[in-house]
Design brief:
With 414 residues, the protein is mostly helical. It has one domain. It has 16 helices and no strands. Helix 4 crosses helix 16. Keywords: Membrane, Transmembrane, Transmembrane helix.
Length: 414
């Protein structure tokens, strides 16, 4: 591989198979483990409460307490958009690494495209059959758009990624700002959102699994393409390009100066947090007006996303080599190796915890109480991931994804 791009010259007799354990970059696994746990923290409200409550505390089934509002504030500053952004960065690095190794075997873009098509199928099944907060569909579509851009130089990927991210941020602020000053700022919009939240709560508390799936298909099929295009173009694709560029520049492989990583890592996290604090305090102090809260949460708060994501990536890359030598760090790396299984498995687990046809806790836990569910799920992920990998080569869904991508059955047992 050269700075100009990927080599597509096939290696003589190269086997058509996925990467072996000894070829893995443990830093990517460790950071991916941190990201997949952080994503659950961000998503937990949308699992156990109406989806609108994820953005807007008044949509909680029971009136939001002071503690619930403080948890929203903490998440807005340190969690929401941050770990999804970090995961997007890692996905960009991952698809470049996969394409690089596939190109060495003479497979290149065709195998990567097939891999993304399989991921898209998983994402759509996840969206309609399990949970509408799916990100796999977005990643698959963004990856397809990114494929021809992976042959660019690392510098071009970085510049285009940052410029696209900034442009997307401006577009989102403009769109939501205009909407917030018009229909979203009206009392009717807030009442419509509350009515929608109540209807959703009734469905998830009293509806059967079949009724929930039917509602997902009938109510959300039309808006899914619009959601995917908007998120891909304004956030996910730019972050993937940045992630691919930083991977090539040595961020995840020890190729950058540790002192510089530490300095820029802390600068990024600090700048990102300080930029988000006054933005998040704006709707918090105003007691969450509907239009303002959505404008801040989905638009303006992203001002601090990129510096914090880059800062986290730098610091975690710096800490990973030493961290994975310890028990807890190795558990995070195992969770990252099984990030696909952990992400989808968490959605299935939360479905059984919250849906009325199962354990039935939907709407019964506020934001503060939901933190207990997060901690329990974290403990489960950090326990079962290394235990599974002791006996098996891949996580269960990672194995299935590989088999479908390569069109053959690989050995699962060690």
């Amino acid at each position: 591989m050269t700075e100009a791009g990927l080599s597509h010259t096939p290696a003589a007799g190269a086997p058509v198979q996925p990467v072996r354990a000894g070829e893995r970059l443990v830093t990517l696994d460790f950071i991916r483990g941190v990201a997949v746990l952080g994503i659950l923290f961000a998503n937990i409200t949308a699992f156990g409460q109406p989806y609108m409550a994820y953005f807007w505390p008044p949509a909680l089934v029971e009136p939001a307490t002071g503690g619930d509002k403080l948890v929203w504030l903490f998440q807005a500053i340190f969690v929401d958009n941050k770990f999804r952004g970090l995961f997007s960065l890692l996905f960009g690095a991952g698809i470049y690494l996969f394409l690089q190794r596939a190109s060495e075997r003479g497979l290149g873009h065709s195998l990567q495209f097939r891999r993304l098509v399989v991921l898209l199928a998983f994402g759509l099944l996840h969206y309609f059959l399990i949970w509408r907060g799916d990100i796999l569909t977005v990643y698959a579509v963004a990856g397809m758009f990114a494929l021809p851009m992976l042959d660019w130089t690392a510098r071009k990927q970085l510049y285009v990624g940052v410029a696209s991210y900034v442009s997307g941020l401006v577009v989102m602020i403009a769109l939501l700002g205009a909407a917030g000053g018009a229909e979203l700022g009206s009392p009717k919009a807030a009442q419509d959102a509350l009515d929608q939240a109540r209807a959703e709560s009734l469905l998830y508390r009293e509806g059967s699994y079949a009724e929930i799936v039917q509602a997902a298909v009938s109510e959300h099929s039309g808006q899914l393409p619009q959601e995917v295009v908007l998120v891909v173009s304004t956030e996910t694709l730019p972050l993937m390009l940045i992630g691919a560029a930083l991977f090539r520049m040595g961020l995840f492989s020890g190729g950058m100066d540790p002192a510089r990583l530490r300095r820029w890592g802390w600068i990024g996290v600090t700048v990102g947090a300080l930029a988000t604090v006054p933005i998040a305090l704006w709707p918090y102090r105003a007691d969450f007006p509907f239009g303002l809260t959505l404008f801040v949460f989905n638009g303006l708060a992203r001002v601090g996303q990129l510096p914090m994501v880059l800062g986290l990536a730098a610091l975690l890359s710096l800490w990973a080599p030493n961290a994975v030598r310890g028990w807890l760090g190795s558990c995070f790396a195992a969770a990252g190796r099984m990030a696909f299984s952990n992400y989808l498995g968490t959605s299935v687990l939360m479905m059984f915890v919250f849906h009325g046809w199962a354990l039935g806790l939907f709407g019964q836990l506020g934001r503060v109480e939901l933190l207990g569910v997060v901690l329990a799920a974290w403990a489960l992920m950090l326990a079962w991931s290394p235990a599974w990998l002791v006996r098996f080569r891949y996580g269960p869904l990672e194995w299935l994804w590989r088999c479908l991508t390569y069109g053959r059955v690989f050995a699962l047992l060690r």
